[in-house]
Amino acid sequence: QVLDGAGLDVDFHLLSPKGETLVFDERKSDGVHTVETEDGDYMFCFDNTFSTISEKVIFFELILDNMGEDGDDQEDWKKYVTGTDLLDMKLEDILESINSVKARLSKSVQIQTLLRAFEARDRNIQESNFDRVNFWSMVNLGVMVVVSAVQVYMLKSLFEDKRKSRT
User: Start and end of every GOLD domain (predicted)?
Assistant: First the structure.
């Protein structure tokens, strides 16, 4: 997501380890992409060469799902537990509930991060608008002062006695 900069747009490229283009977006202000991955190094690039004058502030988040989830780690704790028949709820159910809560919490964190990025972009736009309104208000004030001075001068010149008096 482009947070600040002229036009709020940028090009985005995502290349696979084989060098194939997976995603190519031109002049987008935000986007969400989901890609099935394979082993290797991926390359992503935010390109602003079309706008050489202005710089951009970009927020991006890389979310890796199902990383390192081997069944071995989850099964290790079972060999230390004895007498699971006495429990009303099975330990597998507890583990499933914990994993569900963990997934929901991580999704909440992602959504909050995204909302912070939206808020930062909107704040930058509001500050830019505030500066623009202040500048044009000062220009308007200056024009009003000049016009009022010219009007006072013109009215004074209308009532001046231009005849020379002989005494």
Answer: 1-64
